[in-house]
Predict the 3D structure of the following.
Amino acid sequence: MRIVSLLPAATEICFALGLGGDLVGVSPECDYPPAANELPRVSRGLLDYEGKTSAETSRMVGRRLAAERPLYAVDDKALLEARPDVIVTQGLCEVCAPTTDDVRAAAARLPRRPRIVTLDPHSLKDVLEDFERVGHACGASVAAVSAVEDLRERIERVAFLTGHVPEHPRTACLEWLDPLFAAGHWVPEMVELAGGQDVLAKRAEPSRRVEPKDVVMAAPETAVLIPCGFHLERALKETPQVARQPWWSDLPAARQGRVWVADGSSYFSRPGPRLVTGLEILAHILHPEIFSQPPSATDARPWTG
């Protein structure tokens, strides 16, 4: 089986199912596990975000989308050399990877048509089903069942331990900082499982833009900053954009010192196996009295300003 993955979450799923040796091409963002960095790139980004702030990145993306121009392209030559039997792509986010239509068009130009597996998760249940979908398409159904059982057991452990907590802190998870976006899809579900109450977004609904007044009116007791696509160090550099705004001090979370910054790219943005680690990070943030083991300092840190 020769597999091409065009998104980081699918690459992580493939490795989790023991299919890393079958991967013959990945996207530029596929950086985990480390072995993924050694694989050929079969797609490329069409914008250069290097050194750009969140606001500059947003403007670049907005102009490109307004002009109905793609943000990613499939590399036809690299895809031809990969000779894939299966291409795993996504239909969730047009700013994260080539669109499904672009992938289908590129696959149609190959001498032999590969099977295209499209992932479109909006909840943790959907993510676990994607393991089974990839496993079925790539001959790893047994491994998929085992991986899903392990992940579900960890999820259920967190839910059991938070099942009778007396307080569910009002929680705001921000997945972009300029402009502000509240994290949607699976993140509100993760907050709920971790024993909190998401005050800006709803389960299985898309992330949405919010204004500072919306955040202030929501009065979060805990704020978690998880900028999409940013690892922790980059997120920490971006945090002052919001944490030093005058309105930020009006938040109960800021006044009580309950603001955290986390590696959004690894544990919240990608609908793959490490979402469960993200859930465990949230559980510590919201209920350290129950989940006493803090996350690694490279994964999440309290913001001290």
